[in-house]
Amino acid sequence: MFDVALPESLATARERLHRALEHAGRPLDDALLLAVSKTKPESAVRQAHQLGQRDFGENYLQEALDKQTALSELDDIVWHFIGPLQSNKTRSVAERFAWVHSVDRLKIAQRLNEQRPATLAPLNVCLQVNISREPSKSGVAPEETLALAREILTLPRLRLRGLMAIPAPAESMAQQQAPFAALRKLRDELQASLPEALLDTLSMGMSDDLEAAVTEGATIVRLGSAIFGAR
Question: Which domain holds residue 216?
Answer without folding.
Answer: 6-228
